[in-house]
């Protein structure tokens, strides 16, 4: 293989991620030419509705998959957080790269931390996961929807529409915007989204030579963690239409997975946790999902009116 084309969304964050993978590939294979094909997805275009209402994560990856299918690109770089739990037939993840900071970040021009926000302060987020956790811990806050790419969200904060917003720390750091982070939220305070902070590389199934070329970009620890998180979410039928979070860490050979499912108002809040050797990542994810279901997660999900 002499040249590769990376399909990417055109947002600054997506382009940073594509360029990061481009640079890693060029460092690994100096003779290889790697270019980036930027494209807009429906998820980028429809900004007046929350993601959960317009059909969720698939909207950010569909156009990229079409480019792979039509041979216009060889690989697509995604934030794993945006990748649906079940890939369409004919696609596979060739690599999951080393995870960046997985935490959510508190961003505000006036307040140093969530606990400093006064009664009725307005916090922007369109993530049901972030909303349910905020409502559970800080019922006195007002949560308002906030969509758009990272820069758009920061501009809305700066325009005074919100007292604070919550964003993924990874996105801010990648864009050189770490100074906007007032404080990072510990996983116990805001459990990250499944796959948050990790990049994934998607290709057409059956391209063995391409898969082998991309294999060195895979990070085994991140891959095991993300596999456990995604297995949990899949078993819960999770999407961004369900307020759920899942976050795994690996110490030695042992994975620990924490998960939660909550009602959007944060009134019902179910948590679960389990450990297993990394080679049982999928089973670990299913076991945590089972705990959550046994505690009544299916009632919460059924009541969501999807
Ligand atoms: N939902 C959009 C999205 N997808 C991935 C990231 C951040 C980067 C990552 O998690 O790898 C973001 C922005 C955010 O949630 O603030």
From TrEMBL:
Transmembrane segments: none annotated. It holds the Pfam family Porphobil_deam. Residues 224-293 form the Porphobilinogen deaminase C-terminal domain. The keyword tRNA-binding does not apply. The modification S-(dipyrrolylmethanemethyl)cysteine is found at residue 240. One of its GO terms (molecular function) is hydroxymethylbilane synthase activity. GO terms for biological process: protoporphyrinogen IX biosynthetic process. It comes from the Bacteria. InterPro entries: HemC, Porphobilin_deaminase_cofac_BS, Porphobilin_deaminase_N, Porphobilinogen_deaminase_C, Porphobilinogen_deaminase_C_sf. PROSITE patterns: PORPHOBILINOGEN_DEAM. One of its GO terms (cellular component) is cytoplasm. CDD domains: PBP2_EcHMBS_like. Pathway: Porphyrin-containing compound metabolism; protoporphyrin-IX biosynthesis; coproporphyrinogen-III from 5-aminolevulinate: step 2/4. Keywords: Porphyrin biosynthesis, Transferase. Its cofactor is dipyrromethane. Residues 4-210 form the Porphobilinogen deaminase N-terminal domain. It catalyses: 4 porphobilinogen + H2O = hydroxymethylbilane + 4 NH4(+). Belongs to the HMBS family. Tetrapolymerization of the monopyrrole PBG into the hydroxymethylbilane pre-uroporphyrinogen in several discrete steps. Monomer. The porphobilinogen subunits are added to the dipyrromethane group. This is Porphobilinogen deaminase. It comes from Rivihabitans pingtungensis. The lineage of its organism: Bacteria, Pseudomonadati, Pseudomonadota, Betaproteobacteria, Neisseriales. The gene is hemC.
